[in-house]
Amino acid sequence: MFRGFFVKTVSFVGYTVQYGCIAHCAFEYIGEFVSCSGPSMEPTITNHDVVFSERVSRHLCRIQKGDIVIAKSPFDPKMNICKRVIGLEGDKVCTSGPSDIFKTHTYVPRGHVWLEGDNLRNSTDSRSYGPIPYALIRGRVCLKLWPPHSFGVLAESPNDGRIL
User: Which residue in 14, 100, 117, 149 is a FRET match for 75, CA 20 to 30 A apart?
Assistant: First the structure.
């Protein structure tokens, strides 16, 4: 009797570990569901929207200008940020805010990207902390899942013409 219970327990633990490893690999290398918070990506992504972030593009270096990405915050590695890629390495980008009279520019260094929120007046982004290393990108947002009325592929940036 004890032997049967022991075999069932070990079998259950084995299956749990196997499925845990499969789930970990799926979320680490394929994609994950992300609940976004904050106003920085409005109107494209609003507070409490759920999106799917795929990881394959990041591993294949297929991140492009205009993509929305999930990245580790350069200030707090426990926190993720959701921003739009405005510039890739070598691009000239505007570093001043939308209300600045004099516009300033910089070049994105090698191995970095320039990220900005769609809501320029209410976003802490590369204009505050500079370009971020490509390695901090966790994935590319490809689909909005929640709320149901806005399900689908994400729209283009409402702020065109920021790249020079």
Answer: 100
What the block records as the tokens of 125 is 């982004």
Backbone angles phi, psi at 52, to 5 degrees: -105, 125
Residue 40 annotated in active site = yes
To the query of whether residue 96 is one of the catalytic residues in this protein, the response is no
Sequence-ordered list of residues with C-beta below 8 angstroms from that of 148, at least 6 positions apart, any chain: none
List 40, 53, 123, 157, catalytic entry: 40
Domains in the chain: boundaries: 33-150
pLDDT tens digits, the chain, 164 residues: what are they?
677 777 788 788 888 888 888 887 777 778 888 888 888 888 888 888 889 888 887 777 788 898 999 999 888 888 889 999 999 998 898 877 666 778 888 899 999 999 988 888 888 888 888 899 998 998 899 888 888 777 777 766 666 544 43
Domain 33-150 has CATH 3.40.1000.10: no
